[in-house]
């Protein structure tokens, strides 16, 4: 699947405004687009963010410089812009969104032993790894396991989520086996800090500074996001956050997964891919009119 090429392709450059654009292991194509286009793939998004927060450097930086309470809509939009544009955008559009990302990251820095740096390659690698993990898990939970050939190709194409964050391509684990080893090793080193726990409340109960319509949707869907997130997180991590698995969360997640598997595949593709198409159109409109991304 591809989306229409925009006029932004005419300003392709070798480097973005904030440094070189690293080459991914494979250019994004049908494999990554198959996964990212599906709305069900994003059902794991809050679990992915929680895993990011459990990396102390990420948790401290987000706590100090960002807020899911003050700007929830803008945060969500920019995160979705990054994922969708890296998968579906032209090279010029990718540089647009990475420039915007790096511009925001420039101020997220504090020296010292308990400091953080949004441009730290290891932290950004972990962020990209959680994006890959979450989207693939969300897809496979509903639409079934990818065959090995597609899964291998998708993994290589997902390296763009890391290289777009200025992670050298050599840091992305060479294959899915190496990624699994990296993942397990990273999970064992995670530490849920006070800052991470505080941010997690805003993430799981986002009821402030929302337009009325989104506030209502959040109130209705919040419990689903919470029990889904709890059941997807590794046991130690969810317990350290203070959200243990219970009979209720396990049962509700089982029901949700069963319903999703039965209903979602029968939905029209226009419904399943609407969020992707909407955000790509919104991104291109903002680029064309000079609006803030």
TrEMBL record:
Q: Where would you find the membrane-spanning parts of this chain?
A: none
Highest taxon above the source species: Eukaryota
- Residue spans making up a coiled coil are none
Where in this chain does the record put each ER-bound oxygenase mpaB/mpaB'/Rubber oxygenase catalytic domain? 41-254
Gene Ontology molecular function: oxidoreductase activity
Which Pfam families does this chain map to? MPAB_Lcp_cat (PF09995)
Kindly give the PANTHER family that the UniProt entry links to this protein: BLR2777 PROTEIN, ER-BOUND OXYGENASE MPAB_MPAB'_RUBBER OXYGENASE CATALYTIC DOMAIN-CONTAINING PROTEIN
Put simply, this protein is called: ER-bound oxygenase mpaB/mpaB'/Rubber oxygenase catalytic domain-containing protein
- Native species of this protein? Microdochium bolleyi
């Amino acid at each position: 699947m591809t989306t229409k090429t925009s006029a932004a392709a005419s300003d392709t450059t070798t480097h973005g405004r904030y440094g070189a654009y690293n080459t991914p292991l494979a250019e994004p194509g049908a494999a990554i687009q198959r996964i990212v286009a599906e709305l069900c793939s994003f059902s794991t998004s809050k679990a992915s963010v929680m895993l990011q927060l459990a990396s102390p450097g990420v948790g401290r930086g987000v706590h100090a410089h960002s807020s899911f309470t003050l700007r929830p809509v803008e945060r969500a939009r920019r995160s979705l812009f990054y994922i969708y544009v890296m998968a579906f955008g032209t090279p010029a559009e990718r540089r647009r969104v990475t420039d915007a990302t790096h511009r925001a990251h420039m101020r997220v820095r504090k020296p010292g032993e308990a400091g953080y740096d949004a441009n730290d390659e290891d932290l950004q690698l972990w962020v990209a790894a959680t994006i890959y993990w979450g989207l693939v898990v969300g897809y496979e939970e509903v639409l079934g396991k990818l065959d090995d050939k597609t899964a291998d190709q998708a993994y290589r194409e997902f390296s763009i989520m890391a290289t777009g964050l200025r992670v050298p391509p050599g840091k992305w684990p060479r294959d899915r086996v190496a990624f699994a080893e990296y993942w397990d090793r990273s999970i064992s080193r995670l530490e849920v800090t006070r800052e991470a726990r505080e941010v997690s409340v805003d993430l799981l109960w986002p009821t402030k500074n929302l337009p009325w319509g989104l506030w209502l949707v959040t109130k209705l869907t919040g419990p689903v996001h919470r029990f889904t997130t709890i059941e997807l997180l590794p046991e130690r991590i969810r317990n350290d956050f203070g959200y243990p698995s219970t009979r209720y969360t396990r049962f509700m997640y089982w029901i949700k997964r069963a319903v999703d598997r039965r209903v979602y595949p029968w939905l029209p593709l226009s419904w399943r891919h609407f969020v992707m198409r909407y955000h790509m159109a919104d991104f291109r409109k903002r680029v064309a009119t000079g609006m803030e991304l």
